[in-house]
Amino acid sequence: MSTTPDKDKTGSGRGGYSYMQLLSEWELVNRDTSWMEFARCRGADASLFFAEPTVGRHKKQTEAIKYCSNCVVYKNCMKFAIDNRISHGVWGGLTPTQRRRYWVNGVAHDGE
Known about the structure:
The protein has 112 residues and is an all-alpha fold. It has helices at 19-25, 57-69, 74-83, 96-105.
């Protein structure tokens, strides 16, 4: 993973890192990112989806989930995060805790 913050990227949120750059460096099982072009959050402030673990985090997550509910590709996003076991942030309207249930229980998610 990159160790240098990318302060020139917008929406980098936590620590000044570009999440898309970090994502490209992870070992991904599901590499289909074509849906991201149509994501409602594209260009949005990443701090909404990657809230710091502080007081008010639940409120931020609730806002992010609501934001995702109006996205045309939220199912693709959800599947991507579950398939790749992404453990941070709200993806497809699911928090890390909610996604963990899929991993722990071995529940398959087909994006439908």
